[in-house]
Amino acid sequence: MEILIWVILIVAFIVVLYNDLVKLKKLVENAWSQIDVQLKRRHDLIPNLVNSVKGYMKFEQETLEKVMKARAAAISSEDMNEKIKSENEITGLLSRLFALVENYPELKANENVKQLMEELKKTEDKIAYARQFYNDIVMKYNTRISVFPTNIVAKMFNFKEASFFKIEEVEREVPNVDI
C-alpha cells in the first residue's frame, strides 16, 4: 500500500511538471505569434514604402532591391532560426533606408512617404516590444526545462529549448549617414 502511495505521488508530480512545461511552451508560441502579427504588418507596409520612394531614389535601387529580397526571404522562411535571421536583415536594411530618405528633401516632404515611414517606425517599436516579451518567456521556458527535477520530465517528453530572437551584430551598429 505504501508503494502505491509513492507511485501515485510520483505520477502526480510528473503530471504537474509536464503541465507546467506545456503551459510555458504555449506562452512561447503565443509570444511568437504576437511578433508574427507585427512582422506581417511590416511585410505589408514595405512594398508600399519601396514603391513610394523608388522614383526619387534612383541611385539607391540596390538598397530597395535588398529590402524586397529580404522581405521575400522572411515571408517564405519555414525555419524559425532562418526567419529570425531574415527579419534581422530587414530591420538593418530598414534602418539604412530610413537614413537614406533623410538625404532626399522631396521625400521627407511627401505626405505618403512620411505616413508610411511613421507606420513602419511604430511597427518597429511594436516588434521590439514583442521581441522583448518573447525573449523573456523563452528564458523562463528554457530555464525551466534545464533545472532539476523538471529537466528529467522535459527529457522524458522531448521538450526542446526555444530560440531567442537575438539582434545581429550588424543591427547593433549605428548607421553611418553622410550628408
Question: Would you give an account of this structure?
Answer:
With 179 residues, this protein is mostly helical. 79% of the residues lie in helices and 0% in strands. It has seven helices and no strands. The protein has helices spanning 2-53, 61-76, 80-101, 105-109, 111-146, 150-156, 169-172. α1 runs antiparallel to α2 (61-76), α1 packs antiparallel against α5 and α2 runs antiparallel to α3. The longest helix is centred in the N-terminal third of the chain and has 52 residues, at 2-53. The model is unreliable at 170-179 (pLDDT under 50).
Topology as H/E string? HHHHHHH
Cα-to-Cα separation, first versus last residue? 83 Å
User: How many helical elements?
Assistant: 7
Number of strands: 0
Give the overall form: rod-shaped
Assign a percent range to the helix content. over 70%
